[in-house]
Amino acid sequence: MSEPKPAEINDEIDLRELFLTLWRGKYVIFLISVMAIAFSSIYLRTSERKYSVRAVFKPVVEASGGPNLSGLSGLASFAGISMPTSNSSDFTTYQKLIFSEEVAEKVFTNRELVLKIFRGEWNSDTGSFVAPVSGRLGEMKQLVKSVLTGFEKGKYIPPNPKRLSMLMAAILNVSVDNSTGFLSITAETSSPDMIIELISNATQETDDLLKERFFVSAEDTLEFYYQKLLTSRSPEHREALAKLISAEDQKLMLASKSSNFVAEPLTMPSVSLYPTSPKSSLVLALGFVLGIFLGAAIVLVRHAIAKPRAT
After folding, report:
1. What confidence tens digit (pLDDT) does each residue in 226-235 have?
2. Are 107 and 213 in the same domain?
3. What single-letter DSSP state applies at residue 175?
4. Residue 306 sits in the same domain as residue 265
5. Is residue 223 domain-shared with residue 304, that is, in the same domain?
């Protein structure tokens, strides 16, 4: 008879032993979980409560009785003229222009609003903006960042239109509903009144800027159309030019009489009744789960260290 083979080493995890190890360390896991929940509670008590702000805008629609320009694009191109800018393209430009430095420069003239936005940098004693005090923790973070990345802290730049433009792009979110075409501007902030004022100023200045640009180009455009009308001999071309002039005149009338040229508020800006950040239930649940995992990891590490000693 052949001799029995030596027992093979079992490298698989023994689930029963793992469970017993965790069960023996249940008090450690429980204690770490309670500490994690306590830290989560402290975070919730000390963190800023942020509210959701939402403003909805719709495009300013021209009167339905205006001239129908559909089908005239090819004819206008053949005549050597360009179609007037459509309201939809103006609305697209409006969305891209809200965060521009040009708009921020106009908003920046509202000194009261600027002081609200950069209130942490305003020194009432000197009547000027100063670099905010970072504190010991902030200095440590900056030191670690400079060691890891090699970038030193830049020189303090007082609030200016460029900083305001970057700030608006960071805190304001713009989206368009494909089904309705409405423009939504949302933000999550601890100062909803200030954000509402910022949205109102930025959107109005954007609309005024587009209106100013249109007034500058409208006169030259109409003059160009009239010159083409005088030299044109084809009845089709003259009809196309007449409709283009009518459309441009109607747009000029809209810009002269209406307070809103491209977009107008659909509803009043709304603020959530309750804070939307931080989410208490999510933070506490995440703290509890992380506490369990951390406690289990500590128990398993202690067991792995103690096992060779016992052997």
Report:
1. 677 777 777 7
2. yes
3. E
4. no
5. no
Domain with 297, as residue range(s), is 14-47+283-311
AA letter at 64:
S
The answer to whether position 297 is within a domain reads yes
Do residue 262 and residue 298 come from a single domain? no
The reply to whether 105 and 235 lie within a common domain is yes
Q: Do the strands 270-271 and 128-129 form a parallel or antiparallel pair, or are they unpaired?
A: unpaired
Looking at the structure of the chain, the number of domains it has is: 2
Written as six digits, the tokens of 130 are 């100063």
pLDDT tens, position by position, 132-190: 877 777 777 777 777 777 777 778 889 999 999 999 999 999 999 888 889 999 999 99
pLDDT at 97: 92
User: Do the domain assignments include residue 247?
Assistant: yes
Place of tokens 């309670």: 34
Find, among 55, 193, 39, the residue nearest to 116 by Cα: 193
> Taken in order 247, 252, 254, 255, is the CA torsion positive or negative?
positive
- The answer to which of 40-49, 146-155, 246-255 has the lowest mean pLDDT is 246-255
Question: 285-309 burial, b for 16+ CB within 10 Å, e for fewer?
Answer: eebeebbbebbbeebeeebeeeeee
Contact 246, 67 (CB under 8 A): yes
Instruction: Give the model's pLDDT for residue 255.
Output: 65
CB 176 within 8 A of CB 182: yes
- What is the per-residue burial (b if ≥16 Cβ within 10 Å, else e) of 262-275? bbeeeeebeeeeeb
Residue 78 within a domain = yes
pLDDT grade for 64, boundaries at 50, 70 and 90:
very low
Which residues have C-beta within 8 Å of that of residue 132, sequence separation ≥ 6? 120, 121
Tell me the three state secondary structure of residue 56.
Answer: strand
Classify residue 127 as left (phi > 0), alpha (psi -120 to 50) or beta. left
Q: Cα separations (Å) of 66 from 79, 245, 246?
A: 22, 11, 8
